[in-house]
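Subject: for your reference before the review

Hello V.,

The reviewers asked for a structural picture of the protein, and I figured it would be easier to keep everything in one thread rather than splitting it across files. Below is the amino acid sequence we used in the manuscript, unchanged from the supplementary table.
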Amino acid sequence: MIEKFEALVSKLANQQTLRALRKGLLYLMPFILIGSIVLALLNLPIPAYQNFLLCVFGEGWREIGHLIHRGTLQIMAITALITVSYAISMEKRLVKSGEVNAIIIVITAFASFIAFINDSNMIISAEEAGSAGMFGAIVISVLSCELFCFFYKCRDCIQPSDLINYNGSALIRASFRAVIPALLTVSIFSVTKMLLDFIGLTGSQAMLLQAINEIWMTGQNYSSALIIIVITHILWFFGIHGGNVIMDALSDATPVISSATDASILTKEFLDTYVYLGGAGATLGLLVALLLIGKKSSENRLAKISILPGIFNINEIMIFGLPIIFNAYFFIPFVLSPVILSFTAWTSVRMGWVPPVTQAVEWTTPIFLSGYLGTGSVDGIVMQAVNLALAVLVYIPFVRLQERRQQRVRITVFKNLGSEIQQIQEQQKKTVLNRHDEIGSLARALVSEIKDGFRNRTQTLHLEYQPKVNHKGEVMGAEALLRWIHPIYGYVSPLVILRICDEANLTNELGIWVMNQAFGDLKRWQKQGYKVSLSVNLSPRQLQEDESLVQTVQSHVNRLGIEPRYMELELVENAAIDSSDSTRSKLEKIKGMGINLSIDDFGMGHSSLLYICDFYANIVKIDAALVRAVTSDKQRQQIVKSILSLCSQLNVKAVAEGVETKEQVQLLHELGCEYYQGFYFSRSLSIDSFLEYVKQHGVVDQSC
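And here is what came back from the structure prediction:
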């Protein structure tokens, strides 16, 4: 049953329009956060705090807050209209191909919204601009985008050829082509508005208010209150400010209650104090659930940001930022929590276990304080605590379902990121960090984590060491390999790490960090008596751009006191190495310190024999592609034999990398290869495992 529910909800969540809609709402997050925090600060129910600000800033301090509030939360419908229509348009093929600019579709959506809601007295009312107009803005955003794209595809049939074939600039031509689709889209909403006015359906909200009023007036106490609660939260779920709608309906109503006791229980203060903990949907329960079981995810971070506003029952961040609206995973708990909480509180008050709420308390008063002030009793606090715990229990299973889905989505995006970077490496395509889709967002998030690690000295990257051995298995050294076991994505390919660091201009910082870690470990090995060499990869970009590279290497020699002959810098061959005088000078100085230089992937790709001379290399690593084919391809076998013969004549040490079978080792040994690196001998190992490997296999005598 749970699997079927999850499959259905996941299918709904992955629906393209809903995904784009949620993305559009996320664009609102900065303004929702600003507005929510300002609202919380304005309504902080501490007299000393209010008096302090009054004394410091004077009478006008609240007006500043109100102005910020008007510029953020009170224009949410307008901003949502813009962000949602933009997000939806960016998913359209017409926009992705560059044929239509997204801004044209956004303006069309905005014009359609104004045409539909205009009441002739003003362009847009405060009610329509704020959260009360959110539902209409979202619906119009979706429909106008779909209509515009439909008419644009049909433009050859409906648009004059002189507009389609206009030969001016590309921007002007694109504008002309959008004329008829935009006109027809706005016209449809204008005509729809007139038709609704004509048949009297524009008063739909008034009709809804009247229906709610009748339910409340004639209902039987708790059952009618339950209907009101459910309607409120269904409206909220679809982006309509349910609280405002219901309060408008009940503002002048006097319900017919079966007993005086019920009349004293079912009040707005009762709902605010015992039911709407953290706001509509008892979202304080969701916030706590996310903090308790949420992993290091965006939802968990959002929950932390929402703590301050949530305490003051301001939950726009959760509703529009998580988001809860149009999120099928949270529909059931969002409606169910208030139903359960209202029942437990109503029952407890009726049974005399807790007192009714008799004092009016500002709706922004924090939980527990509102329970005490509203009832004048500690029992009110206990009731709130019980209800909060119930809300958390209701939300937890759905948070887990949401987390499982998010994990699947993240893994999919992570795999796509790896594929994109592979294509970029092969085709030299554009970067991933400047993309505005999920792949770009993930790449930027990974870069941010790496930067935080460098800044706070809490880097989650680490090094592993792959042994280099002779044909007997005795260890002559190791190569330091960059690794990242991410808490969410698991193993992150070094190709991904290097590419995003390269795009983020972190290559030099990463290279220095690797040297610090690797040569620090080498010093510890030597202190324990293990005289083995260690190679560290040096990217062509760091070699070319890092003007302090020589000084950095020299500082490691001086600070750590390592014998330079055990240190090796390996020139990574994913691109041609710059052969400028500056680069050669750096390598000459490094070689002059007594440090070894090696050429990676020798014999394939960009490497050439001249690299041995030009870059002062005294070690070459025979490319794994040659090694893999050495036992089956006679031609490549001859290439390897020639490389080994040349290395012997030039007194250059050769290491065969990517060795995986005993047959390869035997043949390479016969051809004259002395040293090997590959899975046949060992995978990369942690520092402790590497030392254990050295103890078991012994060390090559390198005294000569």
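For the response letter, the relevant points are probably these. The mean pLDDT is 80. The chain has three domains: 12-202, 205-408, 441-695.

Happy to draft the paragraph if you're swamped.

O.
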